[in-house]
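Hi, here's the filled form for the chain we discussed.

Project: internal
Contact: R.S.
Residues: 101
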Amino acid sequence: ISYTTSINMESAEWFQLCDWLHNAGAVGFDSSSQTVEPRDFDMAGFEAIRGLAALHDLAAEDVLMSIPLYCAVVAEEIAEPFEGAPWGVRLAAWLLQEEAK
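And the returned structure, exactly as it came back:
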């Protein structure tokens, strides 16, 4: 597996997200404790995937990040806009509802 070193999101957007999370009480998002960043991974012949890559060696007990539940989107709390709606459709509908508030 290899990866590209470029951040998937615009750097300013990634750092804004990290600042917002840090200010909300999340751990692992301020510059002094950040352990991961977004990367694209080449899966050697398979479709590339997007994920988080460690910025340094980690021990088994290291906490990579901790996010307060109120900052997360919880799948069980998102109503289906129609029966059998796929996750992506449910998430899009939820985001539109949040934006309208």
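Let me know if anything looks off before we file it.
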